[in-house]
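Sharing a chain and its predicted structure for anyone who wants a worked example. Both blocks are below, sequence first, tokens second.
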Amino acid sequence: KLATTEVQKSEQNVELVFGNDEQQLDYTLAKCCNPLPGERVFGFITTAEGIKIHRYDCPNSIMLQGRFANRVMKARWIDSDHSNVTVNIEIMGADRKGIVNDVTKIVSGDLNINIKAISFSVDDGLFTGQLTIEVADKVGLTDTINNIKSLEGISTVKRVGKFN
């Protein structure tokens, strides 16, 4: 029988089920990979903090599944009314007048996604931008990334870990 701890699941309002019998258990989302509804995830039974949810492509995934296979649980998202999840995106490309305006117009205007933080810097004609946005699920994140990529001068758009 699994020991579970009280967690702030109600903050997230996203639901996961565990194991072959799809039990609903308490969990927290791992800060290392910040999983989104719709992404492939697994549960990891920690010694002190109950079940932590990791993405399959999390940097810690291979080590956890290899060294602690007996503490890994099958997990999957179920449809529910859920609130948004905060995600960090890095954007790079050729600097041009209006690039910041174009990015914010696509994200806030066209996609109606809330931008929580934004920063752009330019070095020798190339810019690097960081956005912290709120998305509902993986589809929302993919749409955002693809729409930003379609802008003139953008070379890369990718999800990144927590900002320093």
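Comments welcome. The CA atoms of residues 6 and 106 lie 39 Å apart.
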